[in-house]
Amino acid sequence: MTDINNIANEEYYTIRNSLDNIQQLSNFVNHCLNDPSLKLTLEDDTFNKLQKTENIALNLMNQWCIQNSPYKQDEYELVKSVALLNMKITMSEIELSVKCALLLDELCLKVFNNIFLHMDNFNENNLYLNNISLWLDTLAYFEHEHSSFTIVQQYFISLNRIISEFVMSGTYKNYLIKLTKTNVDNEISPKQLFYISSCSLSMGVHLYSQFDMEVVFNEKQFNLLIPSYREFIIESVKNIHQWSHNYLSCVTNILVLSTFSNCHSCTSNLIQFFQHDCAYFQALIDILHYEPIRENIVSSWSNMETILIDTIISFLMICIHGLNGDIICLLRKLSLPDICLPLIEAKFDRICITTYGILAEILTDDDLTKLVFGEHVCDVIFIFLQSAYQNSKQTYKGVPITMILKGLVSLSKNDLIQEIFSKSDEKLNLFLEMTDKYPVVYDILWAFSFNSIIKQKLKQNEIFIDKINKLRNTLNHDNVTRKMICGILWNLGYKDEDSNNGMRPIKFDIMISYSHQEKALCQSIHEQLLQRKFRVWIDYAEIYGNLMDSMAHGIETSNTILVCMSESYKRSNYCRAEAQYAFKKNLNIVPIVLQKHFKPDGWLGFLVGSLFHIDFTKYEFCRSFQMLLNELTHFTQPAIVINRELHESATIRVTIMKPSTSQTLALVDSRKEDGNGAKSIKNWTSKDVLEWCNEHKLTEFSHILNDCDGDSLYHLYEMCKSKNVEQTIALLQNEFQKVGQNLSLIDFARFLSLMAKLITEDEEIVNKNHNEKELTTRF
């Protein structure tokens, strides 16, 4: 380092001895900066002169840090102009070799190493730090734009080893805490800006580039910063209208670091920290919704507004792909679809493309039906896909084809999108062509095969049918691609027909259909059913049966299907095939909600829309399960004796055996006898009440009476007979709405009539028991 400092001293005094020299250099740089058609090659004079000017600017910065030089305006302006010119060159179409030769030399690394080493020499408000920050920001932009090139990777590994120590330092954290407690209209010091804005940007971009992970990143220390980042973002958004440019830079680059850290292989679990953080997501959405920021989006990753929106959109996409369906339901609740729609017209391509990807994930089927641009969405995303597929790098505008395919996997589940794609042979043929290189396309084709027109086109394509049949026979049974292929063939009608034409004997009462993501909760339901003497069939292995045939067998031998609804269930081609086949076979359908805020629509809404939904997210498990039992009693009763045979190849489902006639006759009706004759209504248990409701088809009342015994039922009837009928009906209506039901006047009248008859019978039972007791006493 001594050598560079000696050289810098010599250079510095040579420059300072000629003030005209500095002014001439500034004029030259500004001329290049203002030249809209600037072109550079390694051989021309402009390049050579610029290279010398770069070295002079670097030497000036080095002198600032080692000598703590007093502020000189001409030096400040020269270095600032060079840094701005570097930004222009970074974003230009100039050849990469020229850019690297000009901007990525050893002197730059040595100078910044010196700057970090002597950072304590700079006081809090040293203006030179503004230019050092600007230069470091430009280097970060360069890495962001050209990170795929080896020469760039190697250079920034060295630089970011130094920067990582600053990001993980106590000084950095103290500045972050101070910024959180500072009013947004207060000045941010140059030194604080260097730490919080420039170092965060450089480290975040480097993590996004995913180089040298173990060396530059300390996961443990970084985890300690996450709560501080969260607090800063939430608090700062409250005064977004007062943000200065420097404050905007701090917010943006903290988000860059915290977001792109999720690209780091060791810290991908960090998004779990925000999984249920409604306040944090609301803050991000408020930023997206703020018009002055959206208005300043430009066509390149070169201003803070563009970087901020791009970073937030990227973070939301990371969360959608990395978390379960809860986050999708939460983002819908926070109105993200409406806020994202204007961003599909953004000038920066990646914002536009990523926004389309987010909309593909979070728009419901009903949303897509209401929006008039469904066909436009298909056309645009198809252009993205086709362009990326034809590109040697398999990217479109820097977005990898795998990300575009993820969006299409989600969109393909929508019936409207299937209908739009069914009109274009060109689009369908591209998907067929892509299957060899990208097997995930089979999942898209499986979803498309639910559409009758596409189904017919696929069946008529003999080459495709022959291809997937061969693949089915050669791939392992647990191969994911094979499962998709079996699903396609099933939808196309290539399956073993039921030999009994739907007349197989019922072996099970209930078949539970669920997505593997809800396995834990479904396992609890399964265990509770077994404890209550139901015969239950469930497969936890997530194997697609033998393949689709085992699913068919399970449905054909069951009476009732328990549909465990969630976002992942609705998006599963397998679950759709299963539920629709159960519907076709006329099974009783009992839908339950396993995910907060989830509302079934599209194909799932069609199947279960008019049925009573038991929501396991609204109540504690015990109460929800009791409601489920009440609903199941409409279709089945558990057998007293069980032979728990579990079908070995059953997939994602549970099943329960219906009792035989002899078993049913053996059951004792507890309302008829209590050991001393018929039982009075006041001695009924809650089970007796539910049996009475089900016998008399008072289905709606059974939902609110599941915890009521006979005495409670009697007092409810007395209340209903009171003079204030309107108030009683209003109170009952409120109870019905709590369980998702409505009380009709007809049902209320039937309840009163049946209760009057029951009370009359009850009085006769009481009198009979009393008479029998007296007669017994006499004798």
List keywords for this structure.
single chain, 779 residues, mainly alpha, Rossmann fold, four-stranded parallel sheet, two-stranded antiparallel sheet, 41 helices, 6 strands, 63% helix, 3% strand, elongated, disordered C terminus, TIR_dom, TIR domain-containing protein, Toll_tir_struct_dom_sf
How many helical stretches? 41
User: Radius of gyration from the CA trace?
Assistant: 35 Å
Low confidence ranges: 497-503, 640-670, 775-779
What is the fold-level CATH name, i.e. the topology of the domain at 508-662? Rossmann fold
Distance between the termini: 118 Å
- List the quaternary state of the chains: single chain
Secondary structure class reads mainly alpha
Profile the largest sheet: 4 strands, parallel
CATH architecture verdict of the domain at 508-662: 3-Layer(aba) Sandwich
Question: How would you characterize the overall build of this protein?
Answer:
It is a single chain. This protein is mainly alpha-helical and 779 residues long. Among the domains are: 1-146, no CATH class; 399-491, no CATH class; 508-662, Toll/interleukin-1 receptor homology (TIR) domain (Rossmann fold); 677-778, no CATH class. The protein contains 41 helices and 6 strands. It has a 4-stranded parallel beta sheet. A hairpin with a 2-residue loop joins strand 1 (395-396) and strand 2 (399-400). Helix 2 (19-33) runs parallel beside helix 4 and helix 10 packs parallel to helix 14 (245-260). The protein is elongated and about 120 Å long. The protein starts with a helix and ends with a helix. The model is unreliable at 497-503, 640-670 and 775-779 (pLDDT under 50).
